[in-house]
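Retro notes (design track)

What went well: tokenization of the new backbones is finally stable.
What didn't: we kept losing track of which sequence belonged to which structure.
Fix going forward: every design gets posted as structure first, then sequence, in one message. First example under the new rule, 321 residues:
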């Protein structure tokens, strides 16, 4: 079936939001400026822009997006104290903190500020193909991302869900996600990483016809977490509106996080989480990415230490014990 993107109604607002985020925010002499590490475009870029706006509007802080080519670049800057805030998914943040997996050196000065929303992803295949499960990928062409990149770890986790490794498939070198989508459209790869509800899935279905998210077996959580710490399996209901969901499925889920340098003053971090807590309606209006954001879950238990300024706010609001 043909799906119409729910993101269309957000595009004008997003463009206005992005433009505003690059302009001077506020004129109060007392405003304190914080930089937030983010990327250009994509989910991370959209989230960073929205956070800069909501914090600047709901506090006396002035937050300015600091654009990097990728997450790993600004995590280093944040660890060095050159950027105050940053955003990334849970696995990337965990690996950065511990200096393992995707990272080579531990970012010892990184502290969690808020858990935001789950990011739901999995591999998709054309409904017309013979690939109906992860085990079915054996012998097929899969994207091979640079070693220790996020794409590399997601693909390895997905293969593990089918009891497979790279040795069981044909690897096709892929540099980044946009290149992956083009390769999938062209038939150079047989499966593709995709996020549920993302614009990419609408584009893929427009080019290929119906696609389907391959279901993650419930008993493969340990295999997933060996590649993607903090991930979990999320059941997703069938939907006539969202590509890849003609049938109910289960996908890999991991949370998007806001973090800070440990030396950012507690009172500033308290203002940051307070602004997010108060600005939930604004955030949800910026993009479908925020649809599942629940401020009550901002202090969700994690294996990464929270900043004391965030913990103080969560305790005050009764979000944590």
């Amino acid at each position: 079936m043909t799906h119409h993107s729910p993101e269309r109604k957000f595009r004008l607002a997003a463009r206005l939001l992005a433009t505003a985020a690059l302009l001077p925010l506020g004129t109060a002499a007392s405003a304190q400026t914080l930089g937030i590490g983010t990327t250009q475009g994509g989910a991370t870029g959209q989230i960073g822009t929205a956070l800069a706006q909501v914090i600047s509007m709901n506090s006396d802080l002035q937050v300015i997006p600091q654009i990097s080519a990728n997450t790993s670049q600004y995590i280093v800057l944040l660890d060095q104290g050159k950027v105050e805030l940053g955003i990334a998914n849970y696995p990337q943040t965990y690996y950065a903190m511990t200096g393992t997996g995707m990272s080579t050196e531990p970012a010892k000065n990184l502290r969690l500020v808020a858990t935001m929303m789950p990011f739901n992803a999995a591999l998709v295949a054309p409904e017309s193909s013979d690939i109906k499960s992860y085990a079915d990928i054996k012998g097929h062409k899969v994207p091979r991302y640079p070693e220790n990149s996020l794409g590399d770890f997601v693909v390895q986790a997905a293969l593990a869900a089918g009891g497979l490794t790279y040795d069981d498939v044909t690897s096709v070198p892929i540099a980044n996600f946009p290149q992956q989508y083009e390769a999938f459209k062209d038939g150079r790869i047989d499966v593709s990483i995709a996020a549920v509800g993302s614009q990419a899935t609408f584009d893929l279905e427009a080019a290929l016809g119906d696609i389907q998210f391959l279901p993650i077996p419930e008993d493969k959580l340990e295999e997933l977490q060996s590649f993607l710490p903090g991930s979990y399996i999320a059941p997703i209901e069938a939907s006539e509106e969202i590509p890849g969901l003609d049938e109910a499925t289960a996908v890999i889920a991991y949370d998007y996080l806001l973090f800070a340098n440990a030396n950012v003053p507690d009172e500033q971090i308290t203002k940051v989480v307070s602004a997010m807590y108060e600005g939930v309606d604004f955030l949800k209006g910026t993009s479908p990415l925020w649809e599942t954001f629940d401020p009550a879950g901002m202090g969700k238990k994690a294996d990464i230490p929270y900043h004391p300024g965030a913990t103080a706010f969560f305790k005050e609001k009764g979000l944590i014990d």
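Added context from the reviewer: The chain has eleven helices and ten strands.
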